[in-house]
UniProtKB/TrEMBL annotation:
<dbReference type="GO" id="GO:0003746">
    <property type="term" value="F:translation elongation factor activity"/>
</dbReference>
<feature type="domain" description="Elongation factor 1 beta central acidic region eukaryote">
    <location>
        <begin position="100"/>
        <end position="127"/>
    </location>
</feature>
<protein>
    <submittedName>
        <fullName>Probable elongation factor 1-beta</fullName>
    </submittedName>
</protein>
<dbReference type="Pfam" id="PF10587">
    <property type="entry name" value="EF-1_beta_acid"/>
</dbReference>
<comment type="similarity">
    <text>Belongs to the EF-1-beta/EF-1-delta family.</text>
</comment>
<dbReference type="InterPro" id="IPR014038">
    <property type="entry name" value="EF1B_bsu/dsu_GNE"/>
</dbReference>
<dbReference type="InterPro" id="IPR001326">
    <property type="entry name" value="Transl_elong_EF1B_B/D_CS"/>
</dbReference>
<dbReference type="Pfam" id="PF21972">
    <property type="entry name" value="Arc1p_N_like"/>
</dbReference>
<dbReference type="InterPro" id="IPR014717">
    <property type="entry name" value="Transl_elong_EF1B/ribsomal_bS6"/>
</dbReference>
<feature type="domain" description="Translation elongation factor EF1B beta/delta subunit guanine nucleotide exchange">
    <location>
        <begin position="136"/>
        <end position="222"/>
    </location>
</feature>
<keyword id="KW-0251">Elongation factor</keyword>
<dbReference type="InterPro" id="IPR036282">
    <property type="entry name" value="Glutathione-S-Trfase_C_sf"/>
</dbReference>
<dbReference type="InterPro" id="IPR049720">
    <property type="entry name" value="EF1B_bsu/dsu"/>
</dbReference>
<dbReference type="Pfam" id="PF00736">
    <property type="entry name" value="EF1_GNE"/>
</dbReference>
<dbReference type="InterPro" id="IPR036219">
    <property type="entry name" value="eEF-1beta-like_sf"/>
</dbReference>
<keyword id="KW-0648">Protein biosynthesis</keyword>
<dbReference type="InterPro" id="IPR018940">
    <property type="entry name" value="EF-1_beta_acid_region_euk"/>
</dbReference>
Length: 222
């Protein structure tokens, strides 16, 4: 990674510079690499680190169950992170601990039957309380201007002014396309059940004084 110890001012500066051009620590969707840095920071940094603060709030918006399901590999060692220690197995937290049938070799008395039924009921209640995962997608958009005289900063401000329930804007950068013209490449995360990518692109194209066209450069399920 292009940053060092995130618990130090220098490491935070390097992380800020890295996240200015990247929405995630690795690739176009959150992974265990993001979780490594997230846990190393512990909390959103104070001071002038807008990209780190934006990234931290985004990672924190996911439920613990969602973060646990992320793919990829954690960073081998992130300075400031808590060491990973195998957790001791919790009592009655493993499916194997639930005796659903009892022993075939012993006659089951009334007390044993009561205990078994209580365990089955507790097991079913635990399974029913598992949180439902929210389907999300990471989208990279290419927003193209009319010409080299288009105010790209104002165009980005217009794009970011779009607010929708389930939409979170991420990092952006200008990418040269030729003849002195740059396109705006901007990342966003959407909740699939709430945000239509077609509707989002239509809203962006409504800024017709700035926007010539919108293309989807990358689309990944999270």
């Amino acid at each position: 990674m292009a940053f060092g110890d995130v618990s130090t001012p220098q490491g935070l500066k390097e992380l800020e510079k890295f996240l200015a051009d990247n929405s995630y620590i690795s690739g176009y969707s959150p992974s265990k690499a993001d979780l490594s840095v997230f846990e190393a920071l512990g909390k959103a940094p104070a001071g002038s680190f807008p990209h780190v603060q934006r990234w931290y709030r985004h990672i924190a918006s996911f439920e613990a169950a969602e973060r646990a399901a992320w793919g990829g590999s954690p960073l081998p060692q992130v300075a400031g992170a808590k060491p990973t220690v195998p957790a001791a197995p919790a009592a009655d937290d493993d499916d194997d601990d639930v005796d659903l049938f009892g022993s075939d070799e012993e006659e089951e008395d009334a007390e044993a039957a009561r205990i078994r039924e209580e365990r089955v009921a507790a097991y079913a209640a635990k399974k029913s309380k598992k949180p439902a995962l929210i389907a999300k997608s990471s989208v990279l958009l290419d927003v193209k201007p009319w010409d080299d005289e288009t105010d790209m900063k104002e165009m980005e401000n217009n794009v970011r002014s779009i607010e929708m329930d389930g939409l979170l804007w991420g990092a952006s950068k200008l990418v040269p396309v030729g003849y002195g013209i740059n396109k705006l490449q901007i990342m966003c995360v959407i909740e699939d059940d709430k945000v239509s990518i077609d509707l989002l692109t239509e809203k962006i194209q409504e800024f017709e004084d700035f926007v010539q066209s919108v293309d989807i450069a990358a689309f990944n399920k999270i």
